[in-house]
Every structure is written in C-alpha cells, then in structure tokens.
Amino acid sequence: MEIYPYTIKLIDPLFYSQEALSGAFTPAYLHATALNHAVAWSMGRIREDQSYIISGKTGGRNIPRYQHSWIEPDFYFTPAATVRSIDYMVETAKGDMDYLIQPGFGQAKINGKNIGRNEVLKAYRIFSIPPETEFKGYLHADPDIVERIPSCIRMGSFRGKAELTIGSAEKIFGIESNQYVNHPVDPLISKVKRGVMIGMFPYPIVESALVEDAWEIRHLGRREFIAVPARKTEYDSGELLQRLENLKPGLSKARDITLPLKDRAYLILHMLRTVLSIRHFLMGISGEERLDAALKEETEGIENIRMASKGESIHIEQHKLLGVVEKVEVIINDCEKKIKGDTESGKSKGSGGGSSSIIL
C-alpha cells in the first residue's frame, strides 16, 4: 500500500453528537470509523457491520456491529483533525412533536405519562461544524483503488455532503519505532504508548500519539511520522507458505494456451480466490462478501472468466488471461514476503498482526 495525504472540505454543516450539559457539540475530529464507512458506502459497498446501526438483529441496543475502523481490505483512512480552529454554528432544536425534545422547561407529557417539573429539557442547542471547514489525515491504499475513490461523501447525523481530495503519494524513508505522529490515531489499529485521548463516539481516538511503529516521511523538509496500521491476526506461517507453494505449479499450467479455455479459466479463478483469501487473512479480514468485492474490483473481466470456467461459450483475449496470472504471481510473492518477514521477527506462529514494515 502507498500513503496519501487527504483533505475533507465540508459542503454542508457537519453534526454528530458529543453530549454536554450545554448542548450537543461536534468534536473537531473525524473518527476513522465514520470516514471508512462513509467511503465504503459511497463506493457502493454495502456492509452488514455498517456504522449507522447500533441495535442488533435480536433487539440489543448500543452494541456496534463493527470491531474497528479498518473495515475494507484495500484502503484505510486515518482519523482526521481540523486544519484551523472552529467557529461553531449554533442552532436550537425544538422537537415537541417527536416526544423527545420539547421547547422550554417545566412539566410535560411524554408517551401519555406526566413528567415532573425540571425533568425534561424541552429545547436543545446543536453545535455544528460549518461548511468550508477542512480536515486532514492520511490514506493507506493501492494506487488503483485511489482512482476509484469518489470525490464526494456523506457524513454526520444528517448525512451532510463533503468533498474528499487525495494528494500525491508520500515518499517513505523507512520505518521507526517509538515516534510521535502528526495525525490523530485509532488505538485499535495502531499501537499507542501515550498521547492525548479525544473522547468521541464510537470510541476515543488519540492525538499527539507516541506509537510503536511509524513510517517516516518529509513535510516541508522536516521529518514527520505516520502510524503503521495493523490488525491482529494469528496464523501458522508454515501452513500458509505451503498453501502458496502449492499454487505455483498452476502458474505455468495457466499460461499454457493449448489447455482448454474452461480448464484454464477454472484454474485461474481458483488460484485468484485462494491468494486473495490469504492476503485478506493476513490483513485480519475474512468473509466471502469482501472476497467477491475484491474479485470484481481488482480483476478486469472477472465475470467473463467465471462464465468460461462454467463451460459457457465466450471469447477471452490471451493477454487478459495472462494478466490475471501475472497478478496472482505478484500476490503470492507479496504474501510470502509478508509471512517470512513476520517469521524473522519471531512471529512464526501466534500474533501475525503486530506492526510490520509491509502493509498488503
């Protein structure tokens, strides 16, 4: 993955709740959970563990369906902070018809029950972040996925529009330990040793964070650092390396143009699904839904290959088949490099999700 700076510029006012005695304040930060879900939805990736619902299918409430903010295998947005101080937009909310908020103080009747004096706050102040406010953070993604990320997303309780701009890829000068980073950090994604906790939903993020591992970049000639994202996963490196090794004989077979198209397509599809599953597993991602999405987005003409593997009469150009085989070989090499790198770090079996110098 490459690292790109990104900027979010609000088109509409942004509001999401951080409760306080004097009203509902919107923090001057964007949580990575909100950002990654917003981008996923704008790309048409419907997720069962989406962030807008906190009630379970069985009726349980306030139990998020997601585990952390790195929800997609091919991109990750860090939390973002405002570029400048905020002049909040203040609005008074009156909801006397929705039985939740009523104007003024005093006695009230809610759902047919009389509520005593001073027990109901009948008007509320909402502090929204105004349009034109800018937030900055970093995106971890492959170059091909960056081209498909939309420039307009919706965020906040009222689904306000925001413009998303992605800059040029940063040049990485290496990885270092125990460094302060120049962006807010999700503590469930990067290992934080100390910092300033920012209380917000769905869980706090950390500003001015000292992280275990960080990428080194240059900004205006100065050294700066970006936290390395990692998801904890456990695996047997020997078993995964053997699975990858078993795929290699199929590479030369898939390049054989004398093989019937049905057999070649079936073999290529099998190898591609296997290597993508292993790559996702190393990243802490599982599930057929994400695998199918990766097949469609990363491989041009995958539907034609599927049809050919079923014996349907279809023409596929040789260079397209060979291109998919080449892609499979690249992913095999990347996965082997990742696994062997963790093994050399003393992680042959156990936590494979510690911070690594390679992010797939």
Alpha plus pi helix count: 7
Roughly how many Å apart are the termini? 6 Å
The first-level CATH class name of the domain at 2-88 and 129-169: Mainly Beta
Give the proportion of residues in helices. 25-40%
Indicate the radius of gyration in whole angstroms: 24 Å
Q: Structural class per helix/strand content?
A: alpha+beta
Known CATH architecture of the domain at 2-88 and 129-169? Beta Barrel
The tally of strands reads 19
Give the uncertain stretches in residue-range form. 97-105, 345-360
Which characteristics define this entry?
4-stranded mixed beta sheet, Elongation Factor Tu (Ef-tu), domain 3, globular, disordered C terminus, 360 residues, alpha+beta, 7-stranded antiparallel beta sheet, 7 helices
Describe the structure in brief.
Helices cover 28% and strands 28% of the residues. The chain is an alpha+beta fold and 360 residues long. It is globular and about 75 Å long.
Descriptive overview:
The strands form five sheets. Strands 1, 4, 5, 6, 11, 12 and 13 form a seven-stranded antiparallel beta sheet that branches. The protein has a four-stranded mixed beta sheet with strand order 2-3-10-7, with no helix packed on it. Among the domains are: 2-88 and 129-169, Elongation Factor Tu (Ef-tu), domain 3; 234-351. It has seven helices and 19 strands. With 360 residues, it is an alpha+beta fold. The protein has helices at residues 32-42, 143-146, 237-254, 261-282, 288-298, 302-309, 318-344; strands at residues 2-10, 18-20, 23-25, 29-30, 75-77, 80-82, 89-93, 108-110, 113-115, 124-128, 134-141, 152-155, 160-166, 174-180, 192-198, 205-219, 222-227, 234-236, 349-351. Helix 3 runs antiparallel to helix 4 (261-282) and helix 4 packs across helix 6.
